Amino acid sequence: MDRRIKFRHLQAFVEIVRCRSLKRAAESLHLTQPAISRALSELEDIVGAELLIRGRAGVTLTPRGELLHTFTLASLASLEQGMSGLRAFGQEDEAPLRVGALPSVAARLLPHVADEIASVAPGMRLNIIDGSHHHLTRLLNDKELDIVIGRMGEPEAMSGLSFTQLYMEEVAIVVRPGHPILPEPDLRRIADWPVIYPPQSAAIRPIVRRLLISQGVPLPHNRIESVSVGFGRAHTRDSDAIWFISAGVVAREISEGLLVRLPVDTTSTKGAVGLMVRAGEPDTTQRRLFAQAMDRVIARLRTSGEV
């Protein structure tokens, strides 16, 4: 936007249209009539077009004025909504933002996002739930969650939802240090050990299945289907289990040497992780602040090469 346009220009313009009179608009804004007339003239000079026609019946919009008026009203309404939202933070009756997150997001990103929000809007409360893609999208559609962060699911699972991509993530195959498969990490040998496998409700299940099919590996018979991060971490560290899991869930354990990622090409499992909301639903100050905090966290992680 042209930096010469100030808030007083837009406020005066909208009020003149509402009152259909420069005099009444000046009184409403506690200005002199020359001052509000000057604000309108400055705005018309900046945009290079006549915005209002003065007549005996009052002022009327020109076609260009009507176009600018429509967008100005929307902008001022959005600004007022944001100010009202910020003023509401910290009030006892303010409802928390209900956030659903896949385990990979909950473990990797949400602690940073919570810190970011606390620094910007300390009164904003979060209610965080993790779970499978199917569970979280059902809660979102049922209006029991306000926003979900996770992988884009199959088309039928995304019905009624809007998806905004944040970053790409792939599946990791991890084992404990010293696991017998490590000398020769061949996926065709995974049937020799227990496998922790994504269940039907997990967004990564069809992706993992396609990976195994491409390697000529049948669905493991000796498998435990689970989205429990706590169980997966503990069982993989303490046994010979082989765990198929989103890379973000185990990024810290891998960096600390607690788990080892099999050197198997899993680029085909890479998929979009993003924000999901109910399609067509008006945005809120809370959701917008959350999305902005998420963007800043991801930008930092991308700079450090973590996403």
TrEMBL record:
Residues 5-62 form the HTH lysR-type domain. One of its GO terms (biological process) is positive regulation of DNA-templated transcription. The keyword Protein biosynthesis does not apply. One of its GO terms (cellular component) is cytosol. Keywords: DNA-binding, Transcription, Transcription regulation. Pfam families: HTH_1, LysR_substrate. The keyword Transcription regulation applies. GO terms for molecular function: DNA binding; DNA-binding transcription factor activity. Belongs to the LysR transcriptional regulatory family. This is Pca operon transcription factor PcaQ.
